[in-house]
Amino acid sequence: MILTGMAFPGRKRRPAPDPLNALLSFGYTLIANELHSLLDGIGFDPYLGFLHQVDYGRPSLALDLMEEFRHPLVDRLTVTLVNKGVLKEGDFAPDPQSGSMHLHRRP
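Predicted structure:
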C-alpha cells in the first residue's frame, strides 16, 4: 500500500526502527491516551478490559476499544501522509542511543 520508496519490513515496536513504525506507534499512543481519558471521565475503569490481559499499569479497556480505531484512523492516516509526500523518509532521524526513529523539526 505504500507507493513511495519508504521501506516497511513489517510491524516492529519498542523501539520503532523505521519511520512507518514510528508513525503507527505515535498514532496508537494518541488514540489510547484519548480513550483512557474518556473512559476515566465517564466513570469506567480503563484498566479492566476483556481482550487485553489485565496487567499493572496497562489500560486494558482503553486498548480493547482502540482496536476499532486502529485501521480507520491511524493506519489510513499514516499511509495517506506517506503516499502524498507530507512526510518523507528525510523527515526522520534515528536516535543512536535507543535505536528508535524520531521526527525532526523542519527548518
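Summary: DSSP finds two helices and two strands in the chain.
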